[in-house]
Design a protein that fits this description.
- The chain has about 110 residues and is mainly β.
- It contains no helices and eleven strands.
- The protein has a four-stranded antiparallel beta sheet with strand order 2-3-4-9, with no helix packed on it. Strands 5-6-7-8 form a four-stranded antiparallel beta sheet, with no helix packed on it.
- It is globular.
Amino acid sequence: MSTPVAAVIDIPVETGLGVAVRGHAIALFLVDGEVHAIENRCSHMDAALAEGELDGCIIACPLHHWEFDVTTGQCVEPRWLPNARPIHKWPVQVIDGMVHVELPAEDA
């Protein structure tokens, strides 16, 4: 189920935009004109990834600088730790300048 969550123009370029949608903490990022939606929670200590620094497609957690690829949700640094797990990524559509995130029907 597609849910409108924010306007594309509201997403900062150097960081992300955190939104809450039906119980999900989601971080929106704009990379090369494309919007990506990932879990707004570092898999290390739950820091808000939308508040981190974005470098290309890599977001650095503001707490301990763990790095995630916002296009895949994969943890890219540090890879060797047991809890360096990927974070959830949601499909996104942009319709008339609004970001729509695809959430599972059971979350409706």
